[in-house]
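Handout, section 3.2

Students often ask what a structure token actually looks like in practice. Rather than define it abstractly, here is a full record for Metallophosphoesterase. The first block is the sequence as you would receive it.
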Amino acid sequence: MRVLVFGDVHGNLIALEKLFKIEKDSYDQFVCHGDIVNYGPWTNECLEFLSQQENGVFLKGNHEEYYLEKYYPGSNEVAKSFFDFCIPQFDDKFIPTISKFEKNHSIGNFKITHSIEGLYIFKDTNIENLNFEDNTIVGHSHQQFHRVNNGKNLYNTGSLGQNRALLDVANYLIVDTEKNTVELKSFIFDIQKVISKMELSTYPSICLNYYKSKNTINK
């Protein structure tokens, strides 16, 4: 079975639609590991789009938790500004949907979850003391990588919608459970369409400047 694994969409419908166009008919199941919502201008549209796709499994990220609680617990000024602007745009009809998202999901010999103990794990994070007994796939840190510790594989899908290194690059994985392989994949999308929509939606300057300050593959 081929499984498409992605997450950290963050309201980026442009990247999401392109993913399903690229991988059309190439997978048997998809798993979204959370953080569909917030930041980008199409949270509701992304939830609607994904609900129309077949053979999907949905996991809950920290941003789904924030949306259910309608509260951002952090102190980061940029993140708080995004949340304060985006949460009023959220359609409450999706509350039952995201409430049912699972915490983790297993495919083949891999466990998929949004994060391990809520930690941001990067390419250079010390993972020797992390609690993962299975081959594990996570997201959350928006950085794609493959690492090995004590014979166990740790993959990060990277972010589909908000790559913090190169904002116009979308990351995801394909897991083949029969071949026991994981392929790290990516594509480039038009980030200007996202920023233009944010401008039309009158996002606060602090939010727009955050996106405009990020590097892109063409910058």
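Discussion prompt for tutorial groups: The radius of gyration is 16 Å. How would you have guessed this from the sequence alone?
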